[in-house]
Design a protein that fits this description.
The chain is α/β, with parallel strands linked by helices. The protein folds into 3 domains: 28-197, 3-Layer(aba) Sandwich (Rossmann fold), CATH 3.40.50.970; 217-383, Rossmann fold, CATH 3.40.50; 398-581, Rossmann fold (3-Layer(aba) Sandwich), CATH 3.40.50. Strands 4-3-5-6-8-7 form a 6-stranded parallel sheet, sandwiched between helices. It has a 6-stranded parallel sheet with strand order 12-11-10-13-14-15, with helices on both faces. A 6-stranded parallel sheet has the order 17-16-18-19-21-20, sandwiched between helices. Helix 7 links the parallel strand 7 (154-158) and strand 8. The protein is globular.
């Protein structure tokens, strides 16, 4: 790290009351790249994921000497971004991804958009061409600040070394406070090379950025009163509860009120699946009790949820008789989709605490009665249990495979998924008892998320077993990160739910396009030719590769994977291509039309 000594000049004030001159003070002078490293260290960053290139090379030269920060060299910048997401989502800490300019930066864009949709605290640091070359279409010049403006909480451009500490601290603060999200800091190469006094702590001024954490007391009181007076209330819990670290507070509120709970795809584990008050996951592939509980409710208490289309179905037909209490740290989400009768802006953890206390006071005067509501919900739970049919083609049921992974491995593990049918089955058939155990791409639906996210989670949680539940399509998008895992001793487990197709697209083609499976066959496992052979691919990376084709082989393979901790493990489970995700509410249909299975309800009328 290049350092030198700088002297701060003394200042003199005119007039008889002028203070005595301050003796010269010595300030450490660092290169801009040295300032990046020092700032990250002082912010407590322990692990970063990245890939070097020309515009970020000065920083990488500094990073090489760090004894405090572990750098994981990925094989693709998208892997760095998703690894940073997995790191953050499993630990509650900020994830850091680093890339060079141009294509290196644009390769991060998908992961940044993913983090933005799912409120993941992430710091993306990109190199940029020399400031004197900007705007000239220089080699590997891309306006990454402009590109990422719509998909970050904020994007910074740094052109001088003096700006670096303040900007990185500001980025860290923005990413981790309020509604978490990604922040990008683009630093020109000359800013990394030049030197400046390193001032710590820097003065950070963020005009207009004021996160609200404390809720309005009157609104909380109104909400508590409405819960006590309701006949059919439901807690609609979103991923914001997990991001706020409010799971314990939620559990207490649920027990104090006796109100049923549904947890969205992003909130799995926020409330224990084993708790009798939990109705399951709502939405397009949610449980029937969860879907219909929201639909039939007279009061919905939305906690850190955003009424996205995958939960509401056709918005105009969603919960037609319900009054809505909406709690969110982001005021932009309140009444965006569904008008809130009681809007509460604030941190979920703090609001839930206040709501619990307020409800206890209100309930002393008005004791709620949800007996008939619970009778209806218990009837739904009995009539529509989660289940699946055995395939008639002799291949494995994917639901069985995923269910056994969860049962054998247990709730203390971390489960990351790709996107598609396997994602929905993993959300349905693994039982989640704690927050941060379930990682997936919810809002963006990014194929290829699973392997690098699992890698990042294992770096953040080295003592936990980490499974990636992946599809044969998703796996082929980012499996090169197995090399990263092998070289850096990151022993994740990968279960490929191999139906030899783009399963979710194929399901929709079967249901809505008269079975015309247009370009969804992948030829990865059901024919004599396997392209690629996933076992050989795993072995070429140095991982343990296993293929499972029979039900009696499933448990032994999972146990072997859990016992293997000296390298990654890849299990190629050959499953039926005809298996579908049920229940289902297709896009454009109201949730009252939820279909339990293909042969158990009338055909939908889809707009």
């Amino acid at each position: 790290m290049t350092t030198e000594t700088a002297t701060v000049p003394t200042t003199k004030a005119a007039g008889p009351s002028a203070p005595k001159p301050t003796p010269p003070a010595k300030l450490e002078v660092l290169t801009g790249s040295g300032a990046i490293l020092r700032t990250l260290e002082l912010l407590g960053i322990k692990d970063v994921f990245g890939l070097p290139g020309g515009a970020i090379m000065p920083f990488y030269d500094e990073l090489m000497s760090s004894e405090k920060i572990r750098h994981i060299l990925v094989r693709h910048e998208q892997g760095a971004g998703h690894a940073a997401e997995g790191y953050a989502s499993s630990s509650g800490k900020i994830g850091v991804a680093i890339s060079t300019s141009g294509p290196g930066a644009t390769n991060l864009v998908t992961a940044i958009a993913d983090a933005h949709m799912d409120s993941v605290p992430m710091l993306a640091i990109t190199g940029q061409v020399f400031s004197t070359s900007m705007g000239t279409d220089a080699f590997q010049e891309v306006d990454i600040v402009g590109i990422t403006m719509p998909i970050t909480k904020h994007s910074f451009l740094v052109t001088s070394p003096e700006e670096i500490p303040e900007t990185l601290v500001a980025a860290y603060h923005i990413a981790t406070t309020g509604r978490p999200g990604p922040v990008l800091v683009d630093i020109t190469k000359d800013a990394q090379q030049k030197s400046a006094p390193f001032i710590w702590p820097p003065k950070v001024d963020l005009p207009g950025y004021r996160e609200v954490t404390k809720a309005h007391g009157k609104q909380v009181h109104n909400a508590a009163t409405m819960i006590a007076e309701a006949e059919r209330p439901v807690f609609y819990v979103g991923g914001g509860v997990i991001r706020a670290g409010a799971s314990k507070e939620l559990h207490k509120l649920a027990k104090v009120t006796g109100v049923p709970v549904v947890t969205t795809l992003m909130a799995r584990g926020a409330f224990p699946d084993s708790d009798p008050q939990h109705l399951g996951m709502p939405g397009m592939h949610g449980s029937v009790p969860a879907v219909l509980a929201l639909q039939e409710a007279d009061l919905i208490i939305a906690l850190g949820a955003r009424f996205d289309d995958r939960v509401t179905g056709k918005p105009s037909e969603f919960a037609p008789k319900a009054t809505v209490i909406h709690v969110d740290v982001d005021p932009a989400e309140i009444s965006k989709i569904r008008t809130a009768d009681v809007p509460i802006v604030g941190d979920a953890k703090e609001v839930i605490k206040e709501l619990t206390e307020e409800f206890e006071d209100v309930a002393k005067k008005h004791k709620p009665d949800y007996k008939s509501w619970w009778q209806r919900l218990d009837e739904l739970k009995t009539r529509f249990p989660l289940g699946y049919d055995e395939p008639d083609d002799g291949l494995l049921a994917p639901q069985y495979v995923i269910e056994r992974i969860g049962e054998i491995t247990g709730p203390e593990a971390i489960y990351a998924a790709g996107v598609g049918q396997h994602q929905m089955w993993a959300a349905q058939f693994i039982k989640y008892e704690r927050p941060n155990a379930w990682l997936n791409s919810g809002g963006a639906g990014t194929m290829g998320y699973g392997v690098p996210a699992a890698m990042g989670a294992k770096v953040a949680n080295p003592d936990r077993t980490v499974w990636c539940i992946d599809g044969d399509g998703c796996f082929q998008m980012t499996n090169q990160e197995l090399a990263t895992c092998m070289i850096n001793n990151i022993p994740i487990k990968v279960a490929i739910i191999n139906n030899s197709s783009l399963g979710m697209v194929r399901q929709w083609q079967t249901l809505f396009y008269n079975g015309r499976h247009s370009f969804t066959d992948l030829n990865t496992g059901h024919d004599t030719v396997m392209i690629p052979d996933f076992v050989k691919l795993a072995e070429s990376y140095g991982a343990l590769g296993i293929r499972v084709t029979k039900k009696e082989e499933v448990d032994a393979a999972i146990k072997l994977a859990n016992e293997t901790n000296d390298r990654p493990v890849v299990i190629d489970f050959i499953v039926s291509a005809d298996a579908m995700v049920w229940p289902m509410v297709p896009q454009g249909v109201g949730n009252s039309s939820v279909q339990y299975a293909r042969d158990k309800a009338p055909e939908w009328e889809v707009e």
